[in-house]
Each structure stands twice: as C-alpha cells, then as structure tokens.
Design a protein that fits this description.
Blueprint (H helix, E strand, L loop, with lengths): L8 E5 L4 H12 L3 E5 L5 H9 L2 E3 L9 H4 L7 E5 L8 H8 L4 E3 H10 L2 E6 L4 H13 L6 E8 L4 E4 L5 E6 L11 E6 L7 H4 L2 H13 L6 E5 L13 E6 L6 E8 L4 E7 L2 E8 L4 H16 L4 H9 L9 E5 L3 E6 L4 H14 L5 E6 L3 H15 L4 E5 L14 H7 L5 E4 L1 H8 L5 E7 L7 H11 L1
Parallel strand pairs: 1-2, 1-4, 2-3, 4-5, 6-9, 6-10, 7-9, 10-11, 11-12, 12-13, 17-21, 18-19, 18-21, 19-20
Antiparallel strand pairs: 7-8, 13-14, 14-15, 16-17
C-alpha cells in the first residue's frame, strides 16, 4: 500500500483486542516487524507471540523494542491504538510527544478498505456472526476473500483470513464512529438498536451515523438492509439497495422453515434465484436471519447458490457466539458474548428453542456503567426469562463509576427473585451447585476468563 512506503514496523497499543490482533496478523504476514502492548496476557496474546509478535504487558517505555523505542527510528514505524487505551497511557504519550506517526485502528482498516472491494457488515448486534458467515461463504466458493473478523471463526480457528480475491470482509464497528473510516463496496446493516449512547447521545444521532456509513458506499456499490431497518436508512443515488428477512417483499427471503433435530432447513428466495434445501446447524431464528444476510452479501459478490448451500451446512460458528462448550445428558454449557438486551433475548429464545423444558441458569456480567444505566430495565426484562440468574459485579472497561449504577440496579428491577449478585471470586463456587439443565455465561467484559475453568469443572463433575 502506498501509505506504507518506508514503514518497517507497526506497534499496536491494545494488541490483544480481537480487531487489533487481526490487523497485527495481517501485517505480520506481510513481512512487517510487529510488536505491541496490552494490559494482561491472554490466550490471544500468547498465540500472537507464538506467531512472531513481540508483546509487553507493562506500560513502560524502557520495555519497547529498539525499532519502536528510539525516536530516531520513528520514520520507519507506525503506531496504532484503540479508544480503549487511556489518554494518560505512558506509551501512547511517549509516541505522541516524540512525533511518531499515530493512527487509530479504524484508520488502518480504512486504508485497506480503500484498496479492495470491501464487504462491510455493520449493526448493533449480529455483525460478528454475519461477517464470519459471509467470509466463510466466500472462502468456500470460487470467489474467495480476505477477512478481518470480530471473533475467532470455528471453521478456521482465526480472526484473519488472507486470500487472493478482490473482496475483503470487515466488521464495521459503530463504536466511536469507526465505521466512517471505511469505503465499502457492499455495505450490510443488521440492526440499529440504541447502544453506545455514551458516544452518540441519542438514538436519532446513532441512526444518522449509520446513514453516513451507508453514504460512504463506493460508486456502483450495494446496500443490504435487514427488513426491520429498511426505511430508516436511504441509499445514495446509483447504489443498489436490497433487503433481507422472512417477510413478504424482502429481496432475500428465508421461507419454508423447518426445525429438525438439531438443525434448521429452509429455502432462500433471492433476486438471483432460489437457494433450496439450506441446512443450518445453528440454533434460533436469529441465525436464520444471519444466514440469509450472509447469503445476500455472498450472492451479490458472485457466489453461486450451490456454493451457498454447501457452505452454510458446514458453518461451525464463532467463539463466544452460542459457543457450546459442554454437551452432556445432565448439563449443557453455552458461552455467549451478548451484552445488549436484544442480544440476550435472542440468545434465550434460541436456547429455549433448542433445549425445550430444561432449566436454564444464566451468569451475566454487565459491561460499562453507561450501558447498564441506559438499559437496566431491558436487561432486567431479558434476564427475567431465565430460571435462575447470577449477575456478576459490573465490568467498567474504559469508564469511571457512575453513582447509583451497579449490578444491584438490574437485580432490583427484576420480577424473577431467583437472582443473586455475585463477585468473580464467587462464580466457580456457585456454578458447582448447578446439577442439571443449561448453563449460560453471558457478557462482553472479562467473563470469558471463566470459560475454560467452567468447562473443565463441568466435564470433571459430570
């Protein structure tokens, strides 16, 4: 890329993030020297180290490799950071004070987007699953793609795919208006529910941001909208607009839906013909919608109906998206990233659909003070649908405390009184008392750190 002339190395502040790690892998494969910082060691950072990245966990300039630590070398390197890095970071301020070339992660994705035919998948929920499905459909076809994914694909055990195709699939993140950096050829929007109100202020402002994203579609491109979004976002002149869903009138429509034993079968009616006899081994109507969205993007990119059918049957999902970790006669354990009331509702509906008449226990960790404040009633209503609920103490991430906002706030609004607020230290102890049914871990904070210990404990017990 012309933007990388004379660049030898790239330093990632927050390299352990799912989006940052994909970029690190991409440029590592391109022959660049890659290093980075993150607060804690995780399986993802360990994997990156094993692949050739140099990672430190101390916010300390003296720990930097020579290429990145010496201001005399600054013309040879690029510094990438995420909004999760605090403004008082010693490393970030070292790079700023010494005149290094610094850019946000979204800006780097924007550079790549401008040089490929990007399929950008945006939406307050569903974008990780739809982008991963889309990438799988293209990769399994004669079309191919590269992809930057917001989760670890179970089909490929990575969040990065590198192909020879002109298409690049990207998750278009609305946080901090990051998706405004992209120039998609095909833009897909899954949902526009109120979220990130700490950034946008109002739901109306958020819709405006999605319209700006849609307006960035390159000339002759395509806009694909969930049928529930249609009417809220308008295509620019010269842009082809499709919708997807299950209702009459949707351009890409799932129909003849049949729920078999552990699978769904359905047909997808499309402007390119009918994709008949699709089998999907993922639970919930939400995943039929996700599969229809991914098929819409893939068919538009030139994938054939036969290739769609074959690839959807082989789709295995994404880590932390209805991730079945234990499946035994007595107990099933599922981990999910859901962190918005609508996502939790969709998760519980899918669990009820696939595991009828079984007791469902959920362990939920609220993520962000602002989101908890804005959606406390929605969280309470969604969690009420569970049989037993443990709510972990709130995970603040980048935020300072807000007076009166806590996990107890959600618990106090719930009608189901079989609820208990617990600390992280109590989690495994409480989980040991669960003897049957379905156990869910839910949330976007650090609850994922308990997935392996819970998996190990349940397999040993049962």
């Amino acid at each position: 890329m012309s933007d990388f002339k004379n660049i030898e190395g790239i330093y990632f502040l927050g390299i352990g993030g799912i989006g940052m790690s994909a970029l690190a892998r991409y440029f590592l494969a391109g022959g660049y020297t890659i290093a980075g910082y993150d607060r804690t060691e995780t399986p993802l950072t360990v994997a990156l180290c094993n692949e050739g990245c140099a990672i430190i966990y101390d916010d300390d300039v003296s720990s930097l490799p020579e290429l990145f630590g010496s201001p005399s070398q600054k013309e040879k390197v690029l510094i990438i950071f995420t909004p999760a890095i605090p403004a008082d970071s010693i490393l970030l301020n070292h790079f700023k004070d010494n005149g290094y070339r610094i850019q946000k992660r979204a800006g780097l994705l924007g550079m790549i987007s401008r040089e490929t035919d990007t399929i950008g998948v945006a939406g307050t929920h569903g974008k990780t699953t739809v982008s991963t499905m889309t990438a799988h459909l293209l990769t399994s076809s004669h079309v191919g793609c590269s992809a930057f994914l917001g989760g670890i694909s179970r089909n490929y055990n990575t969040n990065l795919l590198i192909g020879e195709s002109r298409f690049t699939v990207m998750e278009a993140d609305e946080f901090d208006r990051s998706f405004h950096q992209l120039t998609p050829f095909i833009a897909l929007i899954t949902a526009i529910d109120a979220d990130h109100l700490d950034i946008y202020g109002t739901a109306e402002s958020m819709v405006e941001a999605y319209q700006i994203y849609a307006d960035k579609i390159s000339e002759g491109g395509v806009l694909i909208l969930n049928e529930k979004v249609a009417g809220r976002i308008n295509p620019s002149p010269g842009i082809t607009c499709f919708t997807y869903g299950i209702e009459e009138g949707a351009s890409f429509r799932a129909q003849n839906i049949f729920h078999g034993d552990g699978y769904y079968s359905f047909d997808i009616e499309t402007p390119f013909g009918v994709v008949e006899g699709v089998r999907l081994l993922m639970p919930g109507m939400v995943n039929i919608m996700n599969a229809t969205a991914a098929a819409a993007a893939a068919l538009t990119a030139g994938v054939s109906p036969d290739e769609i059918r074959q690839a959807l049957f082989l789709y295995k999902g994404v880590n932390r998206r209805f991730d079945v970790r234990v499946s035994l006669p007595q107990i099933t354990y599922i981990d999910d990233y859901a962190h918005h009331p609508e996502e939790i509702n969709a998760l519980i509906s899918a669990v009820r659909d696939f595991y009828p008449c079984r007791k469902i226990t959920g362990i939920f960790q609220p993520h962000l003070y602002s989101r908890t404040r804005d959606f406390a009633e929605g969280f309470a209503s969604a969690l009420d649908r569970l049989d037993q609920i443990f709510i972990l103490t709130l995970y603040p991430a980048r935020e300072k405390p807000i007076e009166g906002v806590s996990s107890d706030m959600i618990a106090s609004m719930m009608k189901n009184r079989n609820v208990k607020v617990i600390t992280r230290e109590m989690l495994l102890q409480e989980a040991r008392q669960i003897n049957e049914g379905v156990l869910l871990t839910i949330g976007a904070g650090d609850i994922d750190r308990f997935v392996e210990p819970l998996t190990k404990m349940l397999k040993e017990r049962f």
